């Protein structure tokens, strides 16, 4: 197992993101998002700019955030 594989596995273990498509998960991980709390500090618009994120990925993220009493940051 390479160093990158080890790092990704450790980050995956710590992640509380919902089940998403692999491209969406790679997009979030590549941008440094591994926890819902991190997503609450950014806007949906910013997340949608990530290569690999699609509109279908937003609903599960919104629901997971809401379950923790969180939301995406305001667009303003």
From TrEMBL:
<dbReference type="InterPro" id="IPR011260">
    <property type="entry name" value="RNAP_asu_C"/>
</dbReference>
<protein>
    <submittedName>
        <fullName>DNA-directed RNA polymerase subunit alpha C-terminal domain-containing protein</fullName>
    </submittedName>
</protein>
<dbReference type="GO" id="GO:0000428">
    <property type="term" value="C:DNA-directed RNA polymerase complex"/>
</dbReference>
<dbReference type="Pfam" id="PF03118">
    <property type="entry name" value="RNA_pol_A_CTD"/>
</dbReference>
<keyword id="KW-0240">DNA-directed RNA polymerase</keyword>
<feature type="region of interest" description="Disordered">
    <location>
        <begin position="1"/>
        <end position="22"/>
    </location>
</feature>
<keyword id="KW-0804">Transcription</keyword>
<feature type="domain" description="RNA polymerase alpha subunit C-terminal">
    <location>
        <begin position="20"/>
        <end position="67"/>
    </location>
</feature>
């Amino acid at each position: 197992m390479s160093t990158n594989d080890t790092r990704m596995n450790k980050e995956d273990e710590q992640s509380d993101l919902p089940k998403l498509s692999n491209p969406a998960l790679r997009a979030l991980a590549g941008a440094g998002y591994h926890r819902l709390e991190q997503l609450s500090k950014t806007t949906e618009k910013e997340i949608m700019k990530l290569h690999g994120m699609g509109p279908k990925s937003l609903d599960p993220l919104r629901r997971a955030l809401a379950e923790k009493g969180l939301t995406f940051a305001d667009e303003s």
